[in-house]
Specification:
- The chain has helices at 21-32, 63-76, 119-122, 143-156, 163-174, 179-189, 193-202, 222-226, 229-240, 285-295; strands at 13-17, 36-40, 55-56, 61-62, 80-83, 86-94, 97-104, 214-219, 253-258, 270-272, 275-277.
- By secondary structure, it is α/β, with parallel strands linked by helices.
- It has three domains: 13-104, FAD/NAD(P)-binding domain; 133-202, no CATH class; 214-295, Glutaredoxin (3-Layer(aba) Sandwich), CATH 3.40.30.
- A four-stranded mixed sheet has the order 9-8-10-11, with helices on one face. A three-stranded parallel sheet has the order 1-2-5.
- α1 packs parallel to α2 (63-76), α4 (143-156) packs antiparallel against α5 and α4 crosses α6 (179-189).
- The longest helix has 14 residues, at 63-76.
- The chain binds FE2/S2 (inorganic) cluster.
- The site of FE2/S2 (inorganic) cluster has 12 residues, from α8.
- Residues 219, 221-224, 260-264, 267, 269 line the site of FE2/S2 (inorganic) cluster.
Length: 304
């Protein structure tokens, strides 16, 4: 309350309520302007709805790519204090000098000790109830498949973090993860299948459905999109008679939309295998497809 000619001193701090992408950006803008910021979020972490999205409208850019730099900047900013699991209970005062009462709920984790390694999630007795191994019938693989997978597991199982190199080696052999192979790996390593599937479905380089020998990655990131990558996608789709994410019946090509392959200066860009086709035009597409078909003895590699 102000009375008479008394003027209260303004407080050089701001409270941002809500740690979604808007709140995060507001906190960064205020802090960069030299204002101490308290960022209040009722959930256990900032990020809001955007942290649950894969892509964002209208450009289909990767949501995490938009959010991650802001998360890091907020974590490092000396003038931003993040208050998670916290709600505003009462606001008193006037513009320039508010007093806010917050209620903070218990986290049940020692934030000074937690490194965010995620091991507690993998071993959580509430989410993952270990099943006695003898209650699950062992997965049977074809002898030659089992021999190959056993060899891969033996190469990596005694190294730290063996799952990723094992998955990479299996992917190099099959170009995707057959379900029974993943079940077998789960049983051999004693790692829950749910955890293996989380890894297997997270990375673009992995797939749990069969893919073609050549994966045509059409970049639909912002730079390529504004330079016409949508037309490239249509042309690939018309020529191969498949939609994005589909594979040709001869298992030669899989068509994929990806977000930024790291060569925006060459936009619009397409990557097939290790080869990048920069500043690509729709006219060049039939020739590129014929080249790959010819190299595999499919169709006619003639030029028009
Ligand atoms: S947006 Fe296409 S390469 Fe970056």
């Amino acid at each position: 309350m102000s009375n008479g000619g008394e003027r209260r001193e303004k407080v050089g701090a701001a409270l941002v309520v809500g740690g979604g992408i808007g709140g995060m950006q507001a906190a960064l803008d205020l802090a960069d302007a030299g204002i101490k910021v308290y960022l209040v979020e009722s959930k256990p972490a900032i990020g809001g709805v955007m942290s649950q999205l894969d892509k964002t409208f209208p450009t289909n850019d990767c949501a995490m790519c938009t959010m991650a730099p802001r998360l890091v900047a907020i974590g490092r900013h000396k003038d931003i204090e993040v208050l998670t699991l916290t709600e505003v209970e009462r606001i008193e005062g006037e513009p320039g000098n508010f007093t806010v009462t917050l209620r903070r709920r218990a986290r049940f984790v020692d934030e000074n000790v937690c490194t965010g390694c995620g091991s507690c999630v993998a071993n959580c007795p509430v989410r993952f109830i270990p099943q006695p191994l003898d209650s699950i019938p062992p997965v049977k693989l074809a002898p030659e498949v089992q021999a190959r997978v056993d060899q891969i597991i033996a190469e990596h199982r005694n190294r730290p973090g063996p799952l990723m190199p094992i998955l990479q080696s299996i992917n190099a052999v099959y170009n995707y993860f057959p379900e029974d192979v993943l079940r077998y790996v789960s049983q051999q390593l004693g790692i829950p299948l749910t955890h293996i599937l989380r890894v297997a479905t997270f990375y673009n380089a992995f797939s749990i459905v069969p893919r073609g020998k050549y994966i045509i990655n059409v970049c639909m990131g912002t730079t390529c999109y504004v330079r016409g990558s949508e037309r490239l996608m249509e042309r690939f789709s018309d020529t191969l008679k498949i939609k994005p994410e589909e594979t040709t019946p001869d298992m030669l090509f899989t068509l994929k939309a990806v977000r930024c392959i790291g060569c925006c200066g060459l936009a619009p860009a397409v990557m097939i295998g290790d080869t990048v086709y920069g500043k690509l035009t729709v006219k060049e597409i039939p020739g590129i497809i014929k080249k790959f078909q010819g190299a595999n003895g499919h169709g006619q590699a003639h030029t028009g």
